[in-house]
Amino acid sequence: MKSEELKSLQAPLKDQYREQPDSALITLKAEGHLGAGISCKVDTGRALVEAGLHPATGGSGLQVCSGDMLLEALVACAGVTLGAVATAIGVELKDGKIRAEGDLDFRGTLGVSKDAPVGFKNIRLFFVLDTDATEEQLQSLAKLTERYCVVYQTLTRGVSVKTSFDRQ
User: Fold this and answer.
1) 126, 99 in Cβ contact below 8 A?
2) CATH of the domain at 60
3) In this structure, is residue 5 part of a structural domain?
4) Which of 17, 101, 107, 143 could form a disulfide with 112 if both were Cys (CB 3.0 to 4.6 A apart)?
5) Model confidence over 94-124: pLDDT tens digits?
6) How far apart are CA 99 and CA 128, in angstroms?
């Protein structure tokens, strides 16, 4: 996609959101159903994914780990955002790889140590790009990708999460 095509697709949306700010507020949803054993079937809208325990917590490894899914969501969002930003500012990306790594101490998840946190202690996001972009353009790509990536911003800013438990 060329920069002009992307801008023509996004221009009417940007105008609408400026004129009607409430129309930009959209609730994204995910839904899952408890599966056999210790699993949860999540409808991604494209396929059904069955999540289960990570092998480090007793899982078989046959189901996806939700921690892996979080990193995959970060990689996917960062990759799409990078592509959109590059297109918008006219930087050609011939190829690229995005990788996320996160450190977990499973003592926290398993309740072995109250001192060990539950969740990722650190997440690292790597971009390896095949491009003729200048150093200044690469810095712009990095800055704008971080700024506009929804998953990156959610993870780095933190967000309030409220839970509700009801009976059927």
Assistant:
1) yes
2) 3.30.300.20
3) no
4) 107
5) 999 999 999 999 999 899 889 989 999 999 9
6) 9
